[in-house]
Amino acid sequence: MKILFNVILAILVLLAVSAGITKIMLMQQDGEFFGKYGFTNTILIAYGAVQLLGGILLALPKSRIIGAALVAITFLISAVVLIAEGNIPVTIVTLICVFLLVVIGIHYGLHGHRGGESR
Question: pTM, whole model, 2 decimals?
């Protein structure tokens, strides 16, 4: 169970960090997509910075709950935009990631900084 937990955690960290970096770099696809919904370049960079920070904090055991919360919030915002776009399959994947982030937050809230171990 610990290995599965760590694999899921690593995937979520990589998703958050990579999503944040693409927004900070103002990649054309992100700029065009979020721009349709009122995201200016400044807002998109700030949004990406929060995702990047959340991903970094998620990777560190002592800040994992805060990181999970930040990433979950940014993923929920993305899910709203994806729903507005009508992209239901990617919305579902995004919401699964949010669910996993909530599970990680609850796990660390109950078990402290012990990773995937049970008490």
Answer: 0.88
